[in-house]
Amino acid sequence: MKDKNLEKLTQQIIEETDGGAFAKLIQKLLKKYSSTERTYVLHVLTEYARNGKILHWRNFLLSDIIKLVDENETEYIPFFEWCVTQPELTYWGIDGLLKTKGEKSFRTLIELVKNENLETSVRAKAIKSLSIYSKQAFDRDLPKDPGYWKAEDLRIAEVESWEKEGYQRGEGYDKPKTHDSLEKPKTSLEKAVAKLNKKLEAKRRKNQDLSNPANWLVIADQADMLKIAKRWELPENYVLFLKNYSPLNVYIDSKKYFQGLNIYGASDLLERQEGYSFNPVTNQIIEEWPKKFVVIADAGADPYCIDISQIKDNDAPIYKSIHGAGVWEFELYADSFLSFLKEIAGA
């Protein structure tokens, strides 16, 4: 190796015992050398994963290794086969083995699924990764993060049946249905929503799991819209928004909103009133809550409400309050839902 600086950096990584300093050294290695010296960088990382001094970093490095390794790069199969036998490395080693060995890793991963001595999260991870790779729906209706799965969520019988049938490839999941106007917006509302959708598209490209889709604006279920219409008389702009661009697990990560902003959709608008206007424990209406306010979003449980007593020109103002203060004190946040939507799209 000709690069003396890389030699020196490698030695520093091997000898470092402080986690914070180690993180900076790894960041420097990846940023400066991962594109020009990929094979050598992979050697440094895999050797550290095997024998490194800082135990938790041996695990953390697997995600970087998996990113750098190309699909079906068979020389790394033995490394990942070893990883899945190490309790502290099994979880992420699963993805590395699938990436390098492909379908030939299925039998090994199914053995992990059936191993009752392993933690539930590891067995769940094996099922989740198999599901994504094979496009089988073993992960349907379950949390995106398999770390939140319970033992009863593990569809072991389905996995075993799939194995007996020869590992048939599934159909995966369809993308949620979206409104045509997202591509060709005309009205002010449509243009604001289209701008928001562009922001959400960027998030979806980075991290999307269609078994549990997030950050989509979708066409609402008619049954949900009928339930909403029976409960409230809402302004037309907001009704159109819910009907044609209903937020599906939409979360806006921005400093503008405390702990980020959760925007409610037609499927969860009624349920989201719980804790504000309705107590689900006592099954009673909370009298202190203003009947004119419908909570349409929250930032760290701080509610953003549309005031249905002030509907004008097919819209209504948005009010905000802070939770946990003992008494709800509302202040005007936006003069209309459209203004609020434009702010979200630009946040």
Spatial separation of the terminal alpha carbons: 47 Å
Count structural domains.
Answer: 2
Q: What fraction, in percent, of the residue positions are helical?
A: 40-55%
Strand portion: 5-15%
Write the element-wise H/E pattern from the N-terminal end onward.
HHHHHHHHHHEHHEEEEEEEEEH
* Major β-sheet annotation: 6 strands, antiparallel
> Judging from the principal axes of the Cα atoms, what is the shape?
elongated
Q: Tell me the CATH topology of the largest domain.
A: SMI1/KNR4-like
Number of helical segments with 4 or more residues: 13
The Cα radius of gyration reads 25 Å
Could you tell me the number of beta strands? 10
User: What would the average pLDDT be, to the nearest integer?
Assistant: 95
CATH class group of the largest domain = Alpha Beta
- Which regions contain 5 or more consecutive residues with pLDDT less than 50? none
User: What oligomeric state best describes the polypeptide chains here?
Assistant: single chain
